[in-house]
User: Fold S-adenosyl-L-methionine-dependent methyltransferase from Gloeophyllum trabeum.
Amino acid sequence: MSSASTPLDAAPLNALVDVISSALKDIVTEYSKIGSTVPTLDETRLGPFDNTEQYNLRLNRAVQIVEGACAQLCATVARPSHYLTNKAYCFYECSCLEVAFSARISDILLDKPNGMHVSELSKASGVEVGKLGRVLRLLATQHCYREVEPDVFANNRLSMKLLSNDPIGNFIGHITDECMKGGSHLWTALSDPEWGTSYEVENTAFKKAMGLSIFNWYNEDPRGKSVHERFNQGMIGLGEFNGRGLLAKAYPWETLPEDTVLCDVGGGNGHASLIVLKSFPHVKAIIQDQEHVVSTGKALWSRECPGALEKDRVAFVPIDFFRDTPVRDCDIYYARHVLHDWPDAECVKILANIRKAMKPSSRVLIHEYIYQNVSPTRTQAYTLDKAPEPLLPNFGAGRFKVYTQDINMMALMNAKERSPEMFIELGEQVGLKFVKFHNSGETGLVEFALA
Ligand SMILES: C[S@@+](CC[C@H](N)C(=O)[O-])C[C@H]1O[C@@H](n2cnc3c(N)ncnc32)[C@H](O)[C@@H]1O
Assistant:
């Protein structure tokens, strides 16, 4: 059929298909540049780009376009009742992921390429055979695990991420346990006459669900250390899934002078700085976080970047960023996924303390998810990466994580994700001047200097 005779109402659908096929070409090109093909789902080995350090911004963008356009296409062609009911039911997928991770199904299936019968899996995991089979079938229907023969399940490229020692598995454990419990009480909190308008961590959906604020819950949950450990591992997973490796590519580190000092404020064990130091030996890092958190850093660095420890290129200095000033006169003050934990008033305290430590040439880099309106955004002092039309300009489902993470912050801590304008406004409140915005997939770096 010639394009002239294409019915008018098919045009937007065809445009979405065109966007998908063009992005797919880009994906295939990225793989072919390294002499590879796109790995199948059936693989159990990591694909060449599955590890964040190999990932790049072009591939990331193309994948998000495919995700966004496929979802937009499905939302358009499906009956609304069908589409929305599927969406409403998807929390059961989370429940099944929690079962699979907690029962260590992927660990049990490790090195069993032909899979295991569900009765064997049941014996090894302790989950009742009939129920376990149904859980795994739901997941296999969503491409996580394969049902290789009736009732015989095997790992695949997705289920390998649910291994108990994988940071992504731990992040999924965290999301499908405490986050899902909080999320299930969002309306209860929002419709509460007092809590609905509050931005206090004591008035959250999570507390409605669990009777404790998230911080107290971590201290009082009877599983104790294992929940803490899962959270800490999960934070590494958070970095992994939002492309921690892109940090080395999103900022011009190579242009900075020898012995540039990067202060990673609220840096956890320093796993984000580690990516920078691995690629740029002229950069040094000071990791600052609460004492019990930074104290875990040495173990990670001696495993992943021992040279930096040996050459004193990394130091760990405890801080309470609400009370203390970070180490003074550093060249870069970097804070990743720190401000999103806090309401504006607390963010201003953290930024004001950073500002006190700065010398005239210091820069601040706030690294966070970048919240965008769904309607086309107005002209700004920076350029946000927009998806090709007719995709939603914020990439729709391709960057859905930004919006789920925003609601997660609301449900757990009454905190939020922010747009670049919101960060710029916070900076201005403490005398920081916006310099530049650096796109990094669904995250971005907002750069400030002293005003
Ligand atoms: C969401 S995590 C982000 C960690 C790290 N920047 C990353 O990207 O993985 C927030 C960090 O803030 C730290 N934090 C919370 N309150 C703090 C405080 N009062 N002083 C210093 N660090 C704090 C936590 O320990 C945690 O490591």
Observations:
- Residues 235, 239, 266-268, 272, 289-290, 293, 319-322, 336-338, 341 surround S-adenosylmethionine (CB under 6 Å).
- DSSP finds 20 helices and ten strands in the chain.
